[in-house]
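Box 4.2: Ligand-aware structure prediction
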Amino acid sequence: MSTPSSLRRDPGYAGLRSRVPTLPSTYYFDPAHYARELERIWYRNWVYLCRASDLAGRRSYRTFSIGEQTVLLVRDEQEGLRAFHNTCRHRGAALCREDSGRFPAAGIICPYHAWRYSLRGELLQTSSKQHGEGFALRDYPLYALPVREWQGFVFVALSADPPPFAASFDLGLHRLDAWQLGGLAVGHRLQKTIRCNWKVFWENYNECLHCPGVHPRLAQLVPIFGRALLERRDDPAWQDHAQDEDPKYAGGLRAGAESWTLDGKAVGVPFPGLSAEDRKLAHIYLTSLPSVFIVAHVDYVRVVRLLPLGPELTHMSIEFLVLPQTLADPQCDLRRAIEFTDIVMSEDAEICEVNQRGLRSRAHAQGVLMPEEYAIQQFQDWVRSELARP
Ligand code: FES
Ligand SMILES: [Fe+2]
């Protein structure tokens, strides 16, 4: 279909105006390309790990796999958070084999030859009878990594020189201030391993062309999604309804619904202090590539974290954050939010696997983006620019 010249001139229309090719299919399964993306994207940028409250108390730790690297996150004796490569400075053994635990008062002891480190990463002791000439404990601290805690979210970077933290988010860090994210509690967690490349997940996240077919329930709850659009200006004829407040055009939830739940009713104590517009919109997305998006609803906040496990394997974790009052209130039952999320995210996971399988075709070197997929173009441009960075 050719684009009428009136649309080409419409400065408010968000959609793509010409044919845009996708990334090459090999980018989604080739092990060498995957290794390049780990180096240039996952090992350079800030990656979300967990909530700070997941490391409760001094000497508690957790480990995380990011691609082929394992990060050890520790709460030190002064209650500060520190991150290290999970690797001993002696001959490189993994320091921790568990996902989580608590170190003894003696500190971090390597399971191989018992080198002992403080929780600040200083090497305190080796197991040798004496040290050879030129060897000094101070020269062998653990390999430390930059850690950043923001509103209770803990991020790590596998690079000594990560980009500015705020620059990794698509909106200003103050956009969700009204939710007071730092004080929220984790009400529930879901985990899934998806047989797809991590980019397949993000591309699916960046369009709603699939919503009517893949998400029948979500398409009812959010009428504009039922029209295969993310926002008002994604419709080439948006000006015909520029002032129309019907959610079908304006976005937001169907009449009478308050939140993303099975029946549209809120499940938790509503966040005080939200603006009327934010309550009406009922979902504000804040994204930090490559690892996380945060969706703020009126009564809960959903945090979706991705970590790559292989060229065609991605781990997804979903946290439900709520006010502490919600957890304390026996009237509040998060299940309707959890089940709704599980339905939608399972639909997404399944369709991402379908996408991944087809990408393997020897005939399919590259696809094409349609006008509604403008946000995929932005994502793919970001991938290309990260790959091109020296
Ligand atoms: S590898 Fe850790 S003490 Fe030898
Ligand atoms: Fe989806």
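In the box above, the bound molecule is fe (ii) ion. The domain at 46-157 is CATH 2.102.10.10 (Rieske Iron-sulfur Protein).
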